[in-house]
Amino acid sequence: MHGRVKTRTTEEQRELQRIEKQKKVKLYLEGMNKAFEKRNKKELDDEALAICENLLVHNPDILTLWNFRKEILLEFKNSACTNPEIDLEKLVSKELYLTEVCLKVNPKSYCAWHQRCWTLDNIAPKPDWDRELLVCTKYLELDERNFHTWDYRKFVVGRAGVSAKSELEYTTSKINKNFSNYSSWHYRSQYLPLVHPDATGERPIDRDIHIKELTLVESAAFTDPNDQSGWFYQRWLLDLQQQLPLVLTQACISENFTWVAFNKPVCPNDTALSITGLGDGKWKTCNGETASHVWIKDTQDQSLISYEQSKLSLFVNGELKSDLELKLVTESNDQQKMIGFRKPSFINNLNSALVDFYSSLLESVISLLELEPDCKWPLLSFVTIARHLRFESSRAEIYEKLELLKKCDPTRKNYYDDLRSKFLIEDKLSELEDFTGVFDVSCMELTALYHTQYLSLFREVNLSKNKLGKIKRRCLGNLCNLQACEVLNISDNNLEVTKVPKLPNLVTLVDGKCLAGQKV
Amino acid sequence: MANLVKDVTISDSHPNTLLKDKHVNYLKSYSDNKEDYEYCMTEYLRMSGIYWGLTALDLLNESNEESTEAMMEFILKCVNDEGGISPSTGHDPHILYTLSAVQIAALLKQESKLPVQKIVKYIQSLQQPDGSFAGDKWGEIDTRFSFCAVACLSLLGQLDAIDLKKALDFVMSCLNFDGGFGSRPGSESHAGLIYCCVGFLSVTGNLHLIDADLLGWWLCERQLPSGGLNGRPEKLPDVCYSWWVLASLSILGRLKWIDQDSLTRFILACQDTETGGFSDRPGDIPDPFHTLFGVAGLSLLGTKDLKEVDPTFCMPANVIQRLGAVSQKLPSP
């Protein structure tokens, strides 16, 4: 029951309502009994249709009655070949009309919408899809956010063979009329890649169209900077660059234990993936789930550790996707292992045309912020664009803007804190040349731990004096990637209960309760 | 075109503490008058109504054991020849009510009395060649039904009875630009459908396929100044959307991205101080549907005196543990 306001009524009004409702209940119960009786007797006739209709116009969600009508319509359709008196076209238009009446009562009635699709697909001798498209256009003028109508439009467009180009133009006209319509932007995101695919196949849409689209949404979003629809769409367009390919980022082969780390979580059971250069043995996820960033296995083959240098190759569907050089290292206890890592990449490089365009977009956002310095959406847009451009000059400003966002949108301050933590960890990882010694992100006010897949080789990880304890019952599940970690410091984080995953090489856990040096 | 935020105002006149006894009373007496107008008009979803009421009562630490036998008798009367379960006697079976019936039986520790193999067969029969699920034999397709299928099978310990790979492919084909999901490929993201798809991925252990930061951001953007959450951008807040957004965020390990205090305040304000029960928004008429999602939401937010709820199944966590129905949850970043 949605949006029914409870109103104060007098005793007299209540009595009238009670009598009115009693009457309705009586009619309902009688009607349902009659309908069930007709159905049990298999009386699939006009009278049965009328009984259902009378009930459905008051309550369009009684699915069973729609189903009964379907049975009757099918019966009529079957008899139509032998009985010329049956006018299927008329039956269909009556059924469509009934769904329209019912949709006025409840525009979100799933079963009324489905009845309409079903009738056109199964009963109508010649569905008039042009008319149906007009119905959609009309309904979307009455309520441009009803997702049932948009879904129905998609159904009709498919049946009528309307071109993707024409639907894309429809969204342009809807957006020109009212850009504050999330549904139109969504619909547009569906058709854009169909109409303007990228010839190189590297991105979802053509580069010039990408820029044109960013310009369109810029003018929409700038007209009313407080309207969220356009900004959501803009963030999607800005991040279209971010589709990073799967790469092997780190690996270690030791005497009895091997692991590899990827930039994305992947599933060891995925037969499309294979890694050569590692001998036999079955991979497992390091977290016990279907997929993980780090895969582990027991090493059987000692000979893998005997080479001075070797190379791992990741194949996806038989195609070489990524290589990783391995080096032999000798530990202090004379144990030898092969390790390899590459510098992580968090964002794809923009090509020069996009760098120019993003730079000019950033300038516009800055001008907008001069007019409305506390406006959330341009602030967030600044952060997103500047992050893509990676100009050293704007790095500090990104963090300043995130602080401002926390002030002007306090509801989501924890989100901005986590975003800040993510950026800080990315910045830290980007500076590193070596990924095997000590990783220290203490005293950074981190509220979240991102990218732990790049920490798999560090011997010592210092996360102390941060703010990781903001979450109740936080489990530090992401730490499962720290396969080489011997010393882990999570102290001074206000953690309530510290549940650290079991790590194969962990010797010392500093969690603030047990002080440094305590063995686990 | 001025963009006014659609929202409600919460004042001191709205309740701000949990009216536990009133809700128990509301739920227990809901079905007392079988000729009541609201009761009759919701016959077409009775099985779900019972699930909402029983689960809410259980989360409120109120048992309803005295009605166990009658309840099971009713469920068994609603099982049809093909194994599907209808919302009420005389009505047609549907996957929505099949799940509700299994949930009720599980709550009452009576799942062994269900014709499990028949139900499993019915669910199998609804899977389509593209992996999607129809709600019933008439063929309406929706990701809600994909969730119902795997949730039902998981509770019955028979998850491998269907083609999970294809089912997964279909759900993933409904992924949108904003990281959310809709009811069919190309349908707009909507908190209810997101809950179903995230729930599907949680039950089947495939949450790694989600961009949890992108979707988590979209979900936390549903919170309005009143503290309530809406189901889509530019819509009014609602207790049921609050649950769907909250449960999804919880599964994704990003519950803290919303302001929990103001959401608690919003849900409490939706209580009816006279009759008990929760409504969609402060001042509206309450119903069992919003009462469950109000109580479940408060449980997820850590309100005292409520049982812990499982965000994937929207059932008491101890019931899910007893059944061993494993579902994945992402760790917080």
UniProtKB/TrEMBL annotation, chain A:
SUPFAM superfamilies: Protein prenylyltransferase
Enzyme Commission number(s) of this protein: 2.5.1.60
UniProt record, GO biological process: prenylation
Record carries keyword Protein biosynthesis: no
Gene Ontology annotations for the cellular component aspect, listed alphabetically: Rab-protein geranylgeranyltransferase complex
InterPro entries associated with the record: LRR_dom_sf, Prenyl_trans_a
Top-level EC class: transferase
Leader sequence segment: none
Keywords per UniProt: Prenyltransferase, Repeat, Transferase
Domain of life: Eukaryota
Reactions catalysed, as given in the entry: geranylgeranyl diphosphate + L-cysteinyl-[protein] = S-geranylgeranyl-L-cysteinyl-[protein] + diphosphate
A molecular function (GO) term: Rab geranylgeranyltransferase activity
UniProt function note: Catalyzes the transfer of a geranyl-geranyl moiety from geranyl-geranyl pyrophosphate to cysteines occuring in specific C-terminal amino acid sequences.
Family listed: Belongs to the protein prenyltransferase subunit alpha family.
Protein name per the record: Geranylgeranyl transferase type-2 subunit alpha
Record organism: Bemisia tabaci (Sweetpotato whitefly)
From TrEMBL, chain B:
Keyword entries, A-Z: Metal-binding, Phosphoprotein, Prenyltransferase, Repeat, Transferase, Zinc
Function of the molecule: Catalyzes the transfer of a geranylgeranyl moiety from geranylgeranyl diphosphate to both cysteines of Rab proteins with the C-terminal sequence -XXCC, -XCXC and -CCXX, such as RAB1A, RAB3A, RAB5A and RAB7A. Catalyzes the transfer of a geranylgeranyl moiety from geranylgeranyl diphosphate to both cysteines of proteins with the C-terminal sequence -XXCC, -XCXC and -CCXX.
Coiled-coil region list: none
Cofactor note: Binds 1 zinc ion per subunit.
GO cellular component terms, semicolon-separated: Rab-protein geranylgeranyltransferase complex
PANTHER family to which the protein is assigned, alphabetical: GERANYLGERANYL TRANSFERASE TYPE BETA SUBUNIT, GERANYLGERANYL TRANSFERASE TYPE-2 SUBUNIT BETA
Reaction catalysis annotation: geranylgeranyl diphosphate + L-cysteinyl-[protein] = S-geranylgeranyl-L-cysteinyl-[protein] + diphosphate
UniProt-listed CDD domains: GGTase-II
Protein name: Geranylgeranyl transferase type-2 subunit beta
Family classification: Belongs to the protein prenyltransferase subunit beta family.
Domain of life from the UniProt record: Eukaryota
Subunit note: Heterotrimer composed of RABGGTA, RABGGTB and CHM; within this trimer, RABGGTA and RABGGTB form the catalytic component B, while CHM (component A) mediates peptide substrate binding. The Rab GGTase dimer (RGGT) interacts with CHM (component A) prior to Rab protein binding; the association is stabilized by geranylgeranyl pyrophosphate (GGpp). The CHM:RGGT:Rab complex is destabilized by GGpp. Interaction of RABGGTB with prenylated PTP4A2 precludes its association with RABGGTA and inhibits enzyme activity. Interacts with CHODL.
Cofactor field: Zn(2+)
Ranges where the Prenyltransferase alpha-alpha toroid domain occurs: 18-315
Single GO MF annotation: Rab geranylgeranyltransferase activity
Provenance organism: Bemisia tabaci (Sweetpotato whitefly)
EC number: 2.5.1.60
InterPro entries per UniProt: PGGT1B-like, Prenyltrans, Ptb1, Terpenoid_cyclase/PrenylTrfase
